[in-house]
């Protein structure tokens, strides 16, 4: 049976082998780490389960203060899914602190709230109640 490399030069053959290895590595790589910050335990659990099923590593926080604690200790989180209205520290306050902290400022944030008017301008939004299918599509596109 002929090989795909039969009519290739050694350089083309090597390039094709490197590309194939890179594709296998990318396909097996974990999507990354997402921090879910929401005071609603049922929402946190549902998001966590759906994201883990997609291969993400997920860390959970019940309020902005816990979220900030996690973000300062994690290496390279892929993104944050953030509720707005929470006790202790709101999602808006956490978002403001993230933007003011150079080490956290570039981490993408997605807002998950029942009140879209409360979301910061320009921040991607998924309205509650959240459709997990829509959320996963938005996460894949943003993060």
Structure description:
The protein is an alpha/beta fold and 143 residues long. The protein folds into two domains: 1-29, no CATH class; 31-142, Response regulator (Rossmann fold, 3-Layer(aba) Sandwich). The chain is 44% helix and 15% strand. The chain has helices at 10-28, 41-53, 64-73, 91-100, 132-142, and strands at residues 33-37, 57-61, 79-82, 109-113, 125-127. The protein has a five-stranded parallel beta sheet with strand order 2-1-3-4-5, sandwiched between helices. Strand 3, helix 4 (91-100) and strand 4 form a beta-alpha-beta unit. Helix 3 (64-73) runs parallel beside helix 4. The termini are far apart. Residues 1-5 and 22-28 have low confidence and may be disordered.
Q: Which helices and strands appear, and what pairs or packs with what?
A:
Layout: H1 10-28, E1 33-37, H2 41-53, E2 57-61, H3 64-73, E3 79-82, H4 91-100, E4 109-113, E5 125-127, H5 132-142
Helix pairs in contact: 3-4
Defining traits:
five-stranded parallel beta sheet; Rossmann fold; globular; 5 helices; about 140 residues; about 15% strand; alpha/beta
Radius of gyration: 20 Å
What would you say the CATH architecture of the largest domain is?
A: 3-Layer(aba) Sandwich
Give a quick account of the main beta sheet: strands, pairing sense, barrel closure.
5 strands, parallel
Low-pLDDT segments: 1-5, 22-28
Strand order, largest beta sheet = 2-1-3-4-5
| Number of continuous helical runs | 5
Q: Which strand-content bin applies to the residues? A: 15-25%
Tell me the distance between the termini. 42 Å
Which percent range fits the helix content?
40-55%
CATH class of the largest domain: Alpha Beta
The total strand number stands at 5
């Amino acid at each position: 049976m002929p090989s795909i490399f039969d009519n290739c030069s050694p350089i083309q053959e090597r390039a094709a082998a490197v590309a194939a290895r890179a594709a296998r590595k990318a396909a097996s790589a974990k999507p990354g780490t997402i921090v879910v910050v929401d005071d609603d335990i049922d929402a946190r659990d549902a998001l966590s389960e759906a994201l883990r099923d997609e291969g993400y590593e997920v860390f959970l926080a019940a309020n902005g203060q816990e979220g900030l604690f996690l973000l300062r200790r994690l290496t390279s989180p892929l993104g944050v899914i953030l509720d707005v209205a929470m006790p202790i520290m709101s999602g808006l306050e956490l978002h403001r602190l993230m933007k003011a902290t150079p080490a956290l400022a570039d981490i993408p944030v997605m807002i998950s709230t029942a009140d879209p008017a409360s979301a910061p301008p320009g921040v991607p939004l998924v309205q509650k109640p959240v459709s997990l299918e829509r959320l996963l599509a938005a996460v894949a596109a943003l993060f």
